[in-house]
Structure formats: structure tokens, C-alpha cells
Amino acid sequence: xxxxxxxxxxxxxxxxxxxxxxxxxxxxxxxxxxxxxxxxxxxxxxxxxxxxxxxxxxxxxxxxxxxxxxxxxxxxxxxxxxxxxxxxxxxxxxxxxxxxxxxxxxxxxxxxxxxxxxxxxxxxxxxxxxxxxxxxxxxxxxxxxxxxxxxxxxxxxxxxxxxxxxxxxxxxxxxxxxxxxxxxxxxxxxxxxxxxxxxxxxxxxxxxxxxxxxxxxxxxxxxxxxxxxxxxxxxxxxxxxxxxxxxxxxxxxxxxxxxxxxxxxxxxxxxxxxxxxxxxxxxxxxxxxxxxxxxxxxxxxxxxxxxxxxxxxxxxxxxxxxxxxxxxxxxxxxxxxxxxxxxxxxxxxxxxxxxxxxxxxxxxxxxxxxxxxxxxxxxxxxxxxxxxxxxxxxx
Length: 395
Known about the structure:
Strand order of the largest sheet: 6-13-7-8-9
Largest sheet: 5 strands, parallel
Oligomer: single chain
Strand content: 15-25%
Number of strands: 20
Shape: globular
């Protein structure tokens, strides 16, 4: 499996290089740093330096996994999500620290290949996502064998003589200390920009001192007008690859084709590819309440059972849909959340409707495709406010 993933990643990288070559774009595999606001010094692996000048510079360096350097043994003995598919041996009994989508996705497939897998969570899962949906995801994972250490923080990692890792942790609530041994410990506690070597201060590019990310305006420009930042490196932007690709294309069109179209960061859809997928677009219920107040929103919801779960007699207690709407008028849809099979496919289609300002009234006029999971979205009619049972019982 690891070899197949490696080959796929290499094929993508090679494909990108071929496309650059076809379009007469020079590609340099080297580390860059600013000499002045129009000059970048690139350093090759051999140590040779090359100066490149440009009218405009775009920074798109992304983020690197963070290691908690305050935890003894974290850097010396543990891995990150960047390493998991480059291991030469199976990871064995694995502890994943953190409850980000990266952590849960990795935990899901490790459990799926029948490895003893534990996730350590300091506070809440999937921070920034709708929390009701997030706990449905972790509930499902727990029911299929993934273990969770809730409200715990690691304090030390020690390597034993047999090569295993002895991990100590502390309960956030009780303060009690516990420990266990693992074959692999993977940190998934977020990612951070590597901006220190870019010499951004030298050219006056403003960064957020707390995150290290580059402060950008609505057109992706930094505090230096001809130096731009797109993707994860830009402050306040979604850390999603498709978003960065779209923003990069629009920036290229503005710079070279006379376009004025800006990237719209509202209602960007995304999916967490856990064993039971969670897809969403728009506001979480918490965010909608924060912005509009609980009295001004209506939440339609349903627990449903996918057809493929019925025949296989699989538990479907976490398959759930939630639509967050404004309560007044035609009830504009503020957010759509879907936990179930192929959530990414479902949300991708409805994302266009939400982007175009779809309303619950319009949803009621939409004919569903039977028997699909997406059809259940078109049938939503029970509100949370009503207190009625939201379990789907018929076609």
C-alpha cells in the first residue's frame, strides 16, 4: 500500500513538471530566500546559489507538520503524517496525537487494516467543524475499533530497548498520569509555516506574529504590493488544496490576462475522509448561531440509513444530515452537513446550490434520485426546534 501511494505521489509530481515544461515554465528544485523585493536567491542541494529576478513574486510554500518540542522524545522518536506512507515496515500498534482531520483520517485507515490504533484528544475533535457532526464521526470510529483517549495531553516519549515507545500522558481534567507502549507515535497537532528562511522581514512582508503566516489583502497581495501569498501560507485562508489551486489560477489571470475576478472564500466545501465521511459547506450550527442568534435560524435534520447499510446489516446510527437555514422568508441555506457514505460526492453537488444562495423553499421543489443518500437532503422536513424524532422511516 505504501509503495502504491508513493508511486501515485511521484506520478503527480512528474505530471506537474511535464505541464510546466510544456508551457515553457522554468522549474528550479531549490530553497529560496529574498535578497530584495524583486530578487530571490535559490540554493541547490550542492550549495550553489542562483539569483532570480521577477516583477512579481508569488509565495506558495504551504505548511509543515508541527512537533511539540516541549514534549521530551517527540522529535527524536515520533513521526508526522508526512512520514506514514514512507515507512518501510508496518506501523504496528499506533498512537495518533491530535484530533484534526489528518489524524482521524489516518486513524481510520490504520484501524481498517486491523492495526491497534489509538487517538489522543486534548479537547475536541475536528476543531472548526460543526461539533455535533464531529462527534458522530468519532462515535462511528470508536464503534469500529479505534480507541480514543479523551481530554489527555502527552508528557513524554521514551524509547525502550526492544524499540517500542513508552508514552506518558496526563488527564486534563483529573491530572492523573498514565502510560502505555506503542510501536509508532504520530503527531497530528497542526501544521506551521516555514517562513524564517525566506527573509520576509528584509523586504517588508508583514506576517502574523502568532501564526507565522503572511498577512494578505483581498487580492492575495502582501504588504509589499507585488509579492503575493496563496494557499496555507496566507493568513485567514482555508487550508485546502483546491482552494489554493483556484486562488492561484485567478491570480495568474489577474496578473497576465487583465482579469479582475477575485477568489471567493465564502461557502467553500470540504470533506473529512474518515471511515464514515463528513462533508460540509457553509456555516456550522455554532457559527450560524453566533452570527444570527438561535432565534433567527432553523435547523432541519434527519437520521437516515443508506441502502448499502441495509443489505449488509451495518449500524447506521451516525448517518445524519443537518441543514442550517435562516428562519425568515424563503429560509436561505447557511450550511449543509452530511455524515455518511460518499459525503464528498454529495456535498460537491449541493455546494453549487449553496454558493448560488439556494433556499429551503427551493429545496422542497427539488426531486430526489432514488435510492441515493443525497436524496435524503431533498426530503428534510423535521426541525430541531420541533423536538420530533428525525429518523427516516420510509421512502
